[in-house]
Design brief:
- Its EC number is 2.4.2.1.
- One of its GO terms (biological process) is nucleoside metabolic process.
- One of its GO terms (molecular function) is purine-nucleoside phosphorylase activity.
- It catalyses: a purine 2'-deoxy-D-ribonucleoside + phosphate = a purine nucleobase + 2-deoxy-alpha-D-ribose 1-phosphate.
- Pathway: Purine metabolism; purine nucleoside salvage.
- This protein is 31% helix and 22% strand.
- By secondary structure, the chain is α/β, with parallel strands linked by helices.
- It has one domain: 3-Layer(aba) Sandwich (Rossmann fold), CATH 3.40.50.
- The protein has a 5-stranded mixed beta barrel with strand order 5-8-7-6-9, surrounded by 4 helices.
- Helix 6 links the parallel strand 7 and strand 8.
- The longest helix is centred in the first third of the chain and has 16 residues.
- It is globular, with a radius of gyration of 17 Å.
- The protein starts with 14 loop residues before the first helix and ends with a helix.
């Protein structure tokens, strides 16, 4: 049975109540009353769930309150309950996300994060495909997010809700990732609104203000996760050099191709990290 998406933008709707209802449906469909770690898989990260452990249940997004089908090519329109090795713990793996540029509102963008928290997750791993500003980071390079710059002019926090974002991307988790892959670099992720790619001038602006990576996701989700008290690990996959850094025009097909080429390395990296968290 398909559940009609709720209007999260209705001021009378409590987004945390919808998240609790979504978590209840996930528990019913997966047979697990508790998940431990959540993963949001961006472009290039789709193989990760297979490498973490056995998929114990798959749930169509459209069957869960507040969720929608995938709107971007290369993303899966379902979520999975995955065994984390033989630890007895479970990962809630989202095969897609709602992007800010879809126009569904910030509440929809962060709904998966709030649902994961309601489902019991205390840690979330946010991944994405992005443009790189460092020429030494060729397509297929994973980079840890150590901080971000949010250029969407939006926030998932509503009203007089003040949340400290110091060390938003949990240092402990970044150290675990570096233990798994000592060659990992770190960078500052800059989120633009999208869906158009950034102009060369905008990329240079991002560089001037301290950015190393540019994309169209992640920052709003990370803020929502901090509000929920979750630890956050952010990892970007450089799928292309950003406009003006690259000598060739940008395309979504290029993003998908680079992601597929790096799928094994990225999937194994995250599987090992999740197993140690």
């Amino acid at each position: 049975m398909t559940t009609a998406p709720l209007d999260l933008n209705d001021p009378a709707t409590d987004p945390f109540d919808v998240a609790a209802r979504a978590a209840a449906v996930i528990a019913e469909r997966t047979g697990a009353d508790h998940h431990d770690v959540a993963l949001v898989l961006g472009s290039g990260w789709g193989q990760t769930g297979d490498l973490i452990g056995a998929t114990l249940a798959t749930v169509d997004n459209a069957d869960v309150p507040g969720f929608h089908r995938a709107a971007v090519a290369g993303h899966s329109g379902s979520m999975r309950s995955v065994a984390i090795g033989d630890t007895g713990r479970r990962a809630l793996v989202y095969g897609t996300r709602t992007h800010f540029y879809e126009g569904r509102g910030v509440r929809s963008v962060v709904h998966a994060v709030r649902t994961a928290s309601a489902a019991g997750c205390t840690t979330i791993v946010l991944t994405n495909g992005c443009g790189g500003l460092n020429p030494s980071w060729g397509p297929g390079t994973p980079v840890l997010i150590r901080d971000h710059i949010n250029l969407t002019a939006a926030s998932p926090l509503e009203g007089a809700t003040f949340v400290d974002l110091t060390d938003l991307y949990t240092p402990r988790l970044r150290e675990i990732a570096k233990e798994v892959d000592p060659g990992l670099d770190e960078g500052v992720y800059v989120q633009f609104r999208g869906p158009h790619y950034e102009t060369p001038a905008e990329v240079q602006m991002a560089k001037v203000i301290g950015g190393d990576l540019v994309g169209m996701s992640t920052t709003l989700e990370a803020i929502a996760a901090r509000q929920c008290g979750m630890e956050v690990l952010g990892i970007s996959l450089v799928t292309n050099l950003a406009a003006g850094i690259s000598e060739t025009p940008l395309s979504h097909a290029e993003v998908l191709e680079a992601g597929q080429a790096a799928a094994e390395r990225c999937g194994r990296l995250l599987a090992d990290v999740v197993g140690r968290i």
